[in-house]
Amino acid sequence: MMEKSRRCFLKVAGIAAIGLGAAPAMNFAASDSHGSAAAEKAKSPDALHAERWGMAIIVKKLNDKIAKQITHACHTQHNVPDFTHEVDTQAFPNTRAVNHKQEIKWIWKEKFHYAFPDKEDEFLNEKFHHLPFMVTCNHCKNAPCVQACPTQATFKREDGIVVMDYHRCIGCRFCMAACPYGSRSFNFRDPRPFIAETDPDFPTRSKGVVEKCNLCAERLAKGEQPHCVEASEGAIVVGDLEDPESDVRKLLKEHYSIRRKQSLGTEPSVYYIV
Amino acid sequence: MTKNMIMGGLAVFVLAVLSPFWFNMVTTTQAAPEPELLGPAKQAKKCVLETYDMRANHMSLLDEWRDAVVRDADRIYVAANGNFFNMSLSTGENSCLGCHADKAKFCDSCHTYTSVDPYCWDCHTNPKEIE
Amino acid sequence: MLEIAVKGNRNYWMWIIFLLIVIGIGKIAYLDQFFNGLMITGMSRDVSWGFYIANFTFLVGVAAGGVMVVIPYYLHDYEKFHRITILGEFLAVASLVMCLLFIIVDLGQPVRMLNVLLYPSPKSMLFYDMLVLNGYLFLNIVIGWKVLEAERNQVKPPAWTKPLIYLSIPFAIGIHTVTAYLYCGLPGRGFWLTAILAPRFLASAFAAGPAFLIILCYIIRKFTKFDPGWEAMQTLSKIVCYAVIANLFFFLCEVFVVYYSGIPGHKTHLQYLLFGYHGYNALVPWMWSGFILMAVGAVFLVIPKLRTNYILLPVACAMVFIGAWIDKGLGMISGGFVPSPLHHVTEYAPTGQEIVITLGVYATGFLVLTILYKLATQVKEEVGG
Description:
Chain A is an alpha+beta fold. Chain A has a single domain (55-87, 100-273), classed as Alpha-Beta Plaits (2-Layer Sandwich), CATH 3.30.70.20. Chain A is built from 8 helices and 11 strands. In chain B, 55% of the residues lie in helices and 5% in strands. The model of chain B has no long low-confidence stretch (mean pLDDT 86). Chain C is mainly alpha-helical and 385 residues long. Chain C has helices spanning 10-36, 51-65, 67-76, 85-106, 115-118, 125-152, 161-184, 197-223, 230-261, 264-274, 284-302, 304-307, 312-337, 352-384. The longest helix of chain C has 33 residues, at 352-384. The interface between A and B is medium-sized, with 33 and 31 residues.
């Protein structure tokens, strides 16, 4: 009898201890709302809006130089690490050797048969072999990465942009397996030693999170066009796919365009005008 | 188990549980540092919230901000006191560090004192450090 | 009951200490990964899951395999399994502990792990995987413990364990089905995009789990006075036999569909695994040895004379187990990533440190297994003697 009651006591005490542990967390959550009762959050009046942001890439207007410019503009201004960058050993001592297969990229140049592996025709128009195809996140309408993410760290904004919340990402890399376009990169290590000049207008990432193109959401919010558009000398146009009067839609109306792996049903928002 | 063993064990347990107090008795305690207002913050009389609320709840506020910016694309905060802020730690003049110019004296002094190590600066940059 | 675990002979303690040392080394290796990131692994942008997730997948199978003793005993009152049911359940517990550890060591930001609970995402298969894995672990701990405790006190297990036992059966199927769904629901990965993936996973699970159980029975016979029963082991071996044949059959179905249809997005992966692709062929010898091991093991098990041979049976079981590990642990994950969605070929091989961390996880699982089996066998000895 004695034995039994002691066990009961321990069980109850254990359950009570769990309850006590949870209590402060709940208080904290409750304090969230009262601090800013009358406050409001808003978008900048300059912000650009769209029902569904999309991109058209006029491949003919691209060449290797412009392609390089685009990647450079995007990567430097988003603090994407470059693992070929020589590490400043004074600021970052003990930086280990680099595995270049663990690289990070947001927008980059691919040959046609890599960008469109399912359109690899036997007798392809010769010029296609040499054109640089810029590939990036497609901001798919039915994004498999959004579906896969177990924490909603990757999610679709109302305006169609597939964004990552780097604060929330647990680094499971399910989204990387889910993405049919290889558009995602994982921070296998702290990226900072490999950023030549940190752009103060955009955060870097920490080790252990996935990252990708955000269609310059931070610039659209200020009423500016994405970096790639500005660096592309007219080869990249970004606009509202749902607006028949937008530049993107006008281009698509007049020209034949293709999308990557259309047959998968992900509905990419990046169109290639060839 | 003998009575002595149980009592001995209890005594050790009590001593161990109270260890923070012992620790404070043998080490010297310092007064909590006051965050220093420097730069534009010195002139501006009003922050997002009252000082007390800010001290107690800035982490919840920042948590709300980051969800608003990242997830809802809202970047401007109209505070209850009518002031506008850029919901950002470090970008632009109207951000946290844009006003409180010195991170070391504004954020770090208290965080270090309270042994808090928020991971904000793993990604966000202090504009001063970059230069 | 746990007090049994702290009384053991010299061999027992030597083994425990050995496991603790391996765990310690693994832990040191993991701490380095924790502070420096997954850069210490062989994983890359193209092959973003590696050895950890592969072993996780395999061990989910071993855990699910435990249901192969639960179903005959509890659903069909197959008395011969009375003595080994607890072994199956405890094997599931140990395997699941390893599974969960493998998930954790694979995370880039393990401290944010609970975000999965804070922001539940019912569209993500990982959400369901978390539910069924933890559910199955919980069920097996409760069931195994209560049933063993009742046996020790020579009373009937409490009535409420019965519904839990029945519930554990769909959970066992569930853990491996959902784990297969992690892979086979991804549109861009032709290798995994096949409805037969879940059945194939289950077949290899029902082969590898019981095969390992048979080997464990041999070990128990050697080191304890408890005899799991030769007949029970024979029945298990038949289960292994049919399951491994089913696994090979499913694989051949896959090979037929892929090669006869000839669709490149599906074919290139198998081509890489079986014959090499554009000169990359690191996994080819492994894959062939895996299938040969499973096939020869199946032949050993299907012929009654060989199956009933006391010396040959563990050999056949080991062949099946290792074959299944190669199939799932090496081929299944890498195969899906090579070539990449852009048809670049990046090969993957685990680094030494990755293997050390993996061994640390396995040692943790074996520590749990040893302690649980120590309890089970001792209780059975007490009751039997």
